[in-house]
Structure prediction request, 169 residues.
Amino acid sequence: MASVNKVIIVGNLGADPETRYLPSGDAVTSIRVATTDRYKDKQTGEMKEATEWHSISFFAKLAEIAGQYLRKGSQVYVEGSLRTRKYTDKNGVEKYATDIRADSMQMLGSRQGMGGPSEEGGGGGGAAGGGYAPRQSPARPAAAPAQRPAAAPKPAASNFDDMDDDIPF
Prediction:
């Protein structure tokens, strides 16, 4: 039987990304993203919110991009898979944590403040930002390259300045 381990998160960063480097030189960037569910309480009829925090790790080139462009408050779309790891806390107790290992990331919201020093509000609403996926998924074939229209043949010698002859209309 086939199985699927796929996670899609759209939320806001709770703090600036933390980037570190492995002995191999590869970057690892960690972020915490909040997602909020809004629902109506059936007993009281009032609107309530429930916020979940998700730990997400980026690796290699995607880690460098996330570390450079994401900031506290930035809205981000992340696709990845769940990974459970075992660790020992400072009291010697073994614990488990489930994190998201990112495969692709899309920055959402405005581009103001992206890549610069951390600013209040980091990323707001507005037009979509940039995105990066380190490899093409086999489920989504790459788009065909755009075809440029053929340039019109150049006219014979003329008294006009032929500076604009290469621009197709």
Q: What stands out?
A: Confidence is low (pLDDT under 50) at residues 112-129, 135-149, 151-169. The longest helix spans residues 60-69.
